[in-house]
Amino acid sequence: MSETTQAAHAHATAQSQTETTADSGAAPGTASAVRTAPGRTRERDAFFDNAKYLAIVLVAVGHAWEPLRSGSRAVTALYMIVYAFHMPTFIVVSGYFSRGFDWSAERLKRLVTGVAVPYVVFETAYTLYTRWTDQVPERPISLLGPLYLTWFLAALFIWRLTTPLWRFVRWPMLLALALAVPATVTPSIGNDLALQRTLQYLPFFVLGLYLKPEHFQLLRRREVRILAVPVFACALAVAYWAVPRRSGDWFFHRDGAEELGAPGWYGPVMTLTLFACSLLLTACFLAWVPRRRMWFTALGAGTLYAYLLHGFFAQGAKFWGWYEPDWVHGPLGEITATAVAAVIATVLCTPPVQQVFRFVMEPKMQWAFRQYASGPGARPNRAQGE
For residue 383, what pLDDT band results from cuts at 50, 70 and 90? Predict the structure, then answer.
């Protein structure tokens, strides 16, 4: 199968490969093929599975670097670079695989079981867990205020639910940016359902909705991969320069300009600037992603598991004192923390982990839904319960 044909098949497998941390329910198992009908399989696109796996490793590594930033300008610069593109990558890919989403019964059911249910479960789990690790026993369980990693599921639920609207309106990117820009100058938006991040990251999702296989094909060109080298080198130099001069919190997209100590007019400028920079680095990262099957390709189906589970290790590491020894804050410790985070993320993508946690991440929940006949405009099957 040619690379172009594989890319064209990506849309057809959207519901089997749904979201990563950017999966809204990674495909069950880790086989390279996904079932589309009895006795038939459709090949997964290795490029997207590779991209998701490499991106989730960077997410875990970024969290491992966080406690090391204060003592190392180089680590902080790398941290800023990674945060500039790892979540935008997930969100663009999530938008790409959401192109076929509509308000049909089957897809709404998958949205509930693959996004809403994990959100409720992990929001509760992380609240209870961080009561212990952060020593904050009074921390309330609030489904309106996403804690730690769960913000992405809240945002993804909103993005996917509004997908038909973004496929319908004219000038969707302008509209998405028009919503993202005011978010940086309106602190009163608050943190309910992570609306700050939801709006500020929205343009990446909408862009993904409108990408086509040929756009990813452009990144396969040799000259693009070569150009990505000086782009990343320049980005790293700028990040190293900016460490003592600018706050890296802009890359979290969770605060308004005034909350970051900047004047209000700075927000729109930074929103558009960071969108352009993140998009450029995302393209460079995707240009380097292997197109062929690799030893880690099958792990791309389990990235949602790694995303939601690695946070327990990241939070626990600080509580268990892993960062307290002096040597951890030197070059050897930084390399060790990077390697350990990468290994943990890899293990959490494996089939045994998926099998253990599938009841939470991909529950069937047939008991919770009415039976609908198949086909557009289908009505409830009255013979089966209505």
Answer: very low
